[in-house]
């Protein structure tokens, strides 16, 4: 089968389009014929080597997320059968052969049903972004219906899904984006208010927009830029979940004292297995019940995965980037 494989760590050029042996599922494992695979920034860090959460043995086929049809099942698998439409979210799977390939084998617990209303490219946009959004909102922030959440950088893969999940449980949602296209995507996802973060002092209108009720939860995609300012608008006992960060900052911890606020770090890789599995069950249900409709951004052919790795870091996200493996 065709796959993207790397035999050394390094730049995007180490990703090679090659023929590899088709993987075979063992006990409690599933093989999926993939139509699309998700592309995540974490995969570029893994490619470079030295990533704190995961360093694979080489040669290695990248990719944790994808969508397609169950192709074969191993002994002991009863929840899924060949022919089922599924999405793959294999970040914490014990075995994962990589989704940048025509077929992938992983634990059955990492594979969930995809309803007919969701396309395969949308299914590939789940995985890491959806589990990150769920973990940030429900496991870390413990958001409640009726609370107000501010989602910085809401037009990216994680942000758009976080907007939808928060609205699904009855939260008031404010999102930010930096372009007119991004703002429109956040609106389409159901945000009550969308602010343009490329405009100076864009947060100054928050008090009046929230009727001076303030923000209960903030999902912070760029903590090194926004964290200190977040406290201006955060309610007493509010929670800030750091989902993304690209540098350091000079920060006064006294800001947390005045409001008894919590700053919570988050990484999908740290999720206990039972919480990770819980998030996938919830995502499957939200897809079935209309609470989640992933928004796909750029679609790039599998053989051009190296280009995808460059663009996902250098370009501003507008929806979720995916690789096309086989036309569905």
Automatic annotation (TrEMBL):
Ranges where the Enoyl reductase (ER) domain occurs: 10-323
Compartments reported by the entry: Cytoplasm
Record keywords: Acetylation, Cytoplasm, NADP, RNA-binding
PROSITE patterns with a match to the protein in the record: QOR_ZETA_CRYSTAL (PS01162)
Main location: cytoplasm
Superkingdom in the source lineage: Bacteria
Entry-linked InterPro entries: ADH-like_C, ADH-like_N, ER, GroES-like_sf, NAD(P)-bd_dom_sf, Quin_OxRdtase/zeta-crystal_CS, Zinc-ADH_QOR/CCCR
Gene3D superfamilies linked: Medium-chain alcohol dehydrogenases, catalytic domain, NAD(P)-binding Rossmann-like Domain
Pfam families recorded: ADH_N, ADH_zinc_N
PANTHER family, per database record: QUINONE OXIDOREDUCTASE
Subunit details: Homotetramer.
Protein name, entry field: NADPH:quinone reductase
Species the sequence originates in: Pallidibacillus thermolactis
């Amino acid at each position: 089968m065709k796959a993207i494989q790397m035999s050394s760590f390094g730049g995007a050029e180490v990703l090679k389009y090659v023929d590899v042996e088709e993987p075979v599922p063992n006990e409690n494992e599933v093989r999926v014929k993939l139509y699309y695979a998700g592309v995540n920034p974490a995969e570029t860090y893994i490619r470079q080597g030295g990533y704190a959460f995961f360093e694979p043995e080489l040669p290695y086929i990248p990719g944790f997320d994808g969508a397609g049809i169950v192709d074969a099942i191993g002994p002991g698998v009863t929840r899924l059968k060949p022919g089922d439409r599924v999405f793959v979210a294999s970040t914490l799977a014990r075995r994962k052969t990589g989704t940048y390939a025509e077929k992938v084998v992983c634990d059955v617990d990492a594979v969930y049903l995809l309803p007919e209303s969701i396309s395969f490219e949308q299914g590939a946009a789940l995985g890491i972004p959806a589990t990150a959004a769920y973990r940030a909102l429900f496991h870390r922030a413990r958001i409640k219906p009726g609370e107000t959440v501010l989602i910085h950088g809401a037009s990216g893969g994680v942000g758009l899904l976080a907007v939808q999940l928060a609205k699904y449980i009855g939260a008031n949602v404010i999102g930010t984006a930096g372009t007119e296209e991004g703002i429109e995507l956040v609106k389409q996802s159901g945000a009550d208010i969308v602010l343009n973060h490329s405009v100076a002092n864009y947060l100054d209108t928050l008090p009046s927009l929230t009727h001076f009720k303030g923000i209960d939860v903030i999902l912070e995609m760029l903590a090194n830029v926004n964290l200190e300012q977040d406290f201006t608008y955060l309610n007493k006992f509010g929670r800030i979940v750091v989902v993304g960060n690209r540098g350091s900052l000079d920060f006064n911890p006294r800001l947390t004292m005045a409001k008894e606020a919590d700053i919570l770090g988050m990484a999908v890789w740290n999720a206990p297995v039972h919480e990770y599995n819980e998030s996938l069950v919830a995502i499957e249900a939200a897809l079935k019940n209309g609470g989640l409709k992933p928004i796909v951004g750029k679609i790039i052919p599998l053989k051009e995965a190296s280009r995808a790795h460059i663009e996902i870091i250098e370009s501003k996200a507008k929806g979720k980037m995916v690789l096309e493996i086989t036309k569905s």
